[in-house]
Amino acid sequence: ELNFYGITDNSPEGVIGALEILASKRTKRTHDDLQRTLFTASEVLLEQREFIKSIKFSFEATDADYAGHTYVDQEGTPTIVINTARDSRGGIIDTLIHELVHAFTDRILNLDPSLRTPEQTGAVDRIEALMKLLRKRAAREGAPDSVLYGLTNINEFASVLMTSKDFQAFISGIKVGAGQRNFLTRALAAISRFFAVRGGAQAQKFQAI
Fold this sequence. Notes:
Order of helices and strands: HHHEEEHHHHHHH
Number of helices: 10
Shape: globular
Helix content: 55-70%
Strand order of the largest sheet: 1-3-2
Oligomer: single chain
Number of strands: 3
Radius of gyration: 17 Å
Distance between the termini: 26 Å
């Protein structure tokens, strides 16, 4: 799978190349919400290539009990480890997108609020309010643990929303009033503002899903 996407070493350039392949599929017609989200997420992530280049990547087969892990090392370098020996449900590329979203989310949440875009500042409040509402609905409707995990915090919410078909299916299936947007649409709109750089180009892309 890595070779198919052109990832042959631990360089950020290989990851950028893989994202470019995924982003190129965004205009293709598909009825799969998750596929459309992954394609769009790839395009949005590519708008911050310099940050991707600052990440230390490691693609390795280990006995670790995780498929992917994101952290900041002792030197302050964001690091993403992809365990190629542990197959996630969506494959290695799905895990890579999941961990990249973690890295981007951590970066934004750790920014001094004065350095965030107006869209990001407002989005934090919107996402927290939406998560509070979704937690109540999830508890009421007996959501599985995989869905509840995605409602743990903003970081997990963003990553799971982008890469979990079960999570997307559950929140889009929650009943809403006539004429109201479904919860998946609301969640993607909130996340689009969260990831927006100054000028807000990302918002339009996610809202077009």
